[in-house]
Amino acid sequence: MKRFIFLTFALLIVCMVGCVPKEEAEVEHVESSIIASGQSLPEHFEELATERNHEKLMAVRAKNEQDYEEVWKAFQITEELSRIDMEEKDVLFMGLFESSSCPYTISNVVAHPEKQQLEVSITSKDGDCTADHSPRNFVLALDQQTSAELSTLILHLNAETISLPITDK
Predict the structure, then answer these.
(1) Phi, psi at residue 127, to the nearest 5°?
(2) Nearest CA to 32 among 98, 96, 106?
(3) Which of 106, 165, 115 is CA-nearest to residue 141?
(4) What domain of life is recorded for the organism (predicted)?
(5) How far apart are CA 88 and CA 28, in angstroms?
(6) Rounded to whole angstroms, how far apart are CA atoms 154 and 119?
(7) Residues 27, 160, 150, 105: what is their CA dihedral angle, to the nearest 10 degrees?
(8) Would you call 46 helix, strand, or coil by DSSP?
(9) Largest CA distance in the chain
(10) Contacts of 57 (CB under 8 A, 6+ apart)
(11) Among residues 138, 139, 134, which one has the least CA distance to residue 102?
């Protein structure tokens, strides 16, 4: 009897491991690369940005070379413009504020094309952080086919989840 219960339990576990919820099955790990990250934002950022959970945020997508250059300049990025194959890639500019003593880093990027969402996890170091609002930008290159399906950015910002629209330049 013990052997029958054990085999039944083992079979149940094997069946459950093979079952992946539909939501998880459609997750697409995005091949993205961080082109730039710095401490600058567009002029008048606070007026242009979307406010969510008392945070000012912005997500702008450039789909061609001219828009890419314009948004790069608008974000006041001082590095030389990175060369991107705009026939294959779109470029996503994200802007937000952070604590200058606990800078943000991107830890994960995942697309959910069926939901038209790009999920980005952003973390900072634990501990005492100043309450200042230092500007932060992230610039990501995304595959054009994946990018074309996305309209919403879901930011996991420490313990918060914030949703905002991705606007096209």
Answers:
(1) 120, -165
(2) 106
(3) 106
(4) Bacteria
(5) 17
(6) 5
(7) -90
(8) helix
(9) 74
(10) 49, 50, 51, 94, 95, 96, 155, 162, 164
(11) 134
Residue type at position 89: K
Per the structure block, which two tokens stand in for 31? 């091949």
Give CA–CA dist 89/68, Å, rounded. Answer: 11
Confidence at residue 32, expressed as pLDDT on a 0 to 100 scale: 73
Residues in the chain: 169
Q: What's the sign of the alpha-carbon dihedral 151, 156, 162, 167?
A: negative
84 contacts: CB under 8 Å, gap ≥ 6: 35, 68, 91, 141
**140 contacts 61 by C-beta, under 8 angstroms:** no
Question: Residue 157 has which token pair?
Answer: 């910002």
* pLDDT (0 to 100) of residue 31: 62
* Amino acid, res. 110: V
Element spanning 2, H or E:
helix 2-18
- pLDDT tens, position by position, 112-159: 999 999 999 999 988 889 989 999 999 999 999 999 999 999 999 988
**Cα–Cα distance list, 152 to 8, 59, 76, 129 (Å):** 44, 9, 24, 29
- 74-125 pLDDT, tens per residue? 999 999 999 999 999 999 999 999 999 999 999 999 999 999 999 999 999 8
- 142: tokens are 């995304």
